[in-house]
């Protein structure tokens, strides 16, 4: 396959970025999208040119590091992480535009790499439980109803990649935050701090510069782990109860 790539190049957060066009030949349909970028970078290195900076780690669809905007779609045209997107999805001669996430809360560090530590600060604000450490408790010491356990597992699948923010017209982080609130809120261990958690996380979310949710649903559609939109309803429900002191 021969492809034309228009890739965002930016030297640093305060520099003016631009799209640069590259031609890549002999792309195997079996390559992942990141492997294709690796091949391009090898050719740039051979020419003495600066390689393209992009994030990756596990390359197994687990870590969420590989977020890219591919021809206007978060992670590309397939509902999967960028590292799990294969070049067989594209056709010979295609033109592909590759950009970083676009959000005030995710400033560009270099090229396709963005700073997503805003998510870390939201978690630090309240996305945890406080428990005594020591010997492991008996597995059946705290009973969890099956439906709540399954919903907690579902919400815990969020990998914090930021696709929800990139896909949202308002650059809101509500799906990410809703997943974390739902995950902990469904479990008995998450109840003591439930009101404090949701208030602190929402306050941090807004302070970081994320936008507000207007129920467009693009976040859930772009999520590679299929986190449903109703976790945002759970977040709003918890926030209302926390404000009224009904927890």
Structural class: alpha+beta
CATH topology of the largest domain: Fumarate Reductase Iron-sulfur Protein, Chain B, domain 2
Task: Give the radius of gyration.
Answer: 20 Å
- Could you tell me the strand content as a percent range? 5-15%
Low-confidence stretches: none
Summarize model confidence as the mean pLDDT. 95
Cα distance spanning the termini: 58 Å
Detailed description of the structure:
The protein has 2 domains: 108 residues, Beta-grasp domain (Ubiquitin-like (UB roll)), CATH 3.10.20; 129 residues, Alpha-helical ferredoxin (Fumarate Reductase Iron-sulfur Protein, Chain B, domain 2). Helix content is 35%, strand content 11%. The chain is of the alpha+beta class and 247 residues long. Helix 2 runs antiparallel to helix 6. The protein has a 5-stranded mixed sheet with strand order 2-1-5-3-4. The chain has a two-stranded antiparallel ribbon with strand order 6-7.
List the helices and strands and how they pair.
Elements: E1 3-9, E2 18-24, H1 33-46, E3 69-70, E4 73-74, E5 95-99, E6 108-110, E7 113-114, H2 117-126, H3 146-156, H4 163-167, H5 174-185, H6 194-207, H7 218-222, H8 230-244
Parallel strand pairs: 1-5
Antiparallel strand pairs: 1-2, 3-4, 3-5, 6-7
Helix pairs in contact: 2-6, 3-5, 5-6, 5-8, 6-8
